[in-house]
Write a structure and sequence with these properties.
Strand content: 15-25%
Distance between the termini: 59 Å
Low-confidence stretches: none
Largest sheet: 3 strands, antiparallel
Structural class: alpha+beta
Strand order of the largest sheet: 1-2-3
Number of strands: 3
Shape: elongated
Length: 146
């Protein structure tokens, strides 16, 4: 056990899958997917499991994992910002006020304001329904009637 009371995993055992002797030091390109977009963070030094493919920080290269985290954060922010703008454009195209969209799609009166400011993320079903209505605005009246 370490100072915090956690059991320590021997260096030769993968902490993710428990495989013995499958850890290797490598430099890899790390794929990352978020919502419906993906990116690759290049040249990350790490300890990788050849059994489950999980990666862990290499103590000799801590800056690589700091960079990985920063690039993931930038990417997710970019995707969230794009989604917020897309939500606003689709809602406006349908002629809906934010409060009306919140009532129609659920989430309450201020839900779309929060989505469009990137304060909260909409449920996938909300995004999909809004995209469907964007392509088929004639269905809006049918939705309102339901």
């Amino acid at each position: 056990m370490n100072e915090e009371g956690y059991a320590m995993v021997p260096a030769h055992i993968c902490a993710a899958c428990g495989a013995h002797g499958s850890l290797v030091l490598e430099v890899r390109d790390m794929p990352f997917a978020y919502h419906d977009q993906s990116t690759v963070i290049d040249n990350v030094h790490g300890i990788f499991c050849t059994t489950c493919n999980e990666g862990f920080a290499d103590p000799a290269h801590p800056a690589d994992w700091q960079r990985l985290g920063e690039e993931i954060q930038r990417f997710t922010h970019k995707v969230d910002t794009e989604l917020a703008a897309e939500m606003r454009a689709m809602r406006k195209k349908l002629g809906l006020r934010q409060a009306d969209a919140g009532k129609l799609f659920g989430g309450g009166i201020s839900a779309f304001s929060e989505y469009e400011r990137g304060k909260t993320q909409p449920h996938k079903s909300t995004v999909l329904l809004l995209k469907l209505l964007n392509k088929h605005p004639e269905l809006l009246d049918e939705l309102r009637a339901a």
